[in-house]
Design goal:
By secondary structure, the protein is α/β, with parallel strands linked by helices. The protein is about 45% helix and about 20% strand. The protein binds 5-nitro-6-ribityl-amino-2,4(1H,3H)-pyrimidinedione (INI).
Length: about 160
């Protein structure tokens, strides 16, 4: 028998897609920068003109799942990373958006068999979101690592 675990070192042949919500782009832009930094420092060519990463911008987090599913269905990608920022306001809008995005991203991965990374930051305030998008740490880096680990793991499991 065996133990399977994804690594972060065999990255040169990976193909990734990153879907980014433009809503709260002060935050999502920083998440994207953290994500690219993590990928780059693990050997991934993050240049949009290069062969490894495609980028797709959508209006907001609510639109992320349908695009993530479409990308995953193409069979072109080892993982799809979803980046968004849902920040609680004065209305219940937050709850609707956050719940649907979480369900939709889970469904996109489950239906296609491609790892779809849940990089949607949910926060009560802009300050809280900023702290997780670069002021203290940058969750974008973690999402990059999650994608590399899952992409490598799935390749191992398919052999
Ligand atoms: N989209 C976000 O990504 N974050 C939010 O905090 C947010 N709020 O709170 O409204 C948000 N709304 C837009 C939504 O994602 C859709 O783009 C819009 O409803 C059109 O479908």
């Amino acid at each position: 028998m065996a133990v399977f675990e994804g690594n972060f070192t065999q990255t040169e042949s990976l193909r990734l897609a990153i879907v980014i919500g433009r809503f709260n782009d002060l935050i999502t832009g920083k998440l994207l920068a953290g994500c690219q930094d993590g990928l780059k420092r693990h050997g991934v060519d993050v240049d949009p003109e290069g062969a490894q990463v495609d980028y797709v911008w959508v209006p907001g987090s609510f639109e992320v799942p349908v695009v993530a599913r479409q990308l995953a269905m193409t069979d072109r990608y080892d993982a799809v990373i979803c980046l968004g920022a849902v920040i609680r306001g004065q209305t219940p809008h937050f709850d609707y958006v956050a719940a649907e995005v979480a369900k939709g991203i889970a469904a996109a991965g489950f239906q296609t068999g491609v790892p779809v990374i849940f990089g949607i930051l949910t926060a009560d305030t802009m300050q809280q979101a900023l702290e997780r998008a670069g002021i203290k740490s940058n969750k974008g880096w973690d999402y990059a690592m999650n994608a590399l680990e899952m992409a490598n793991l799935m390749r191992q499991l398919k052999k």
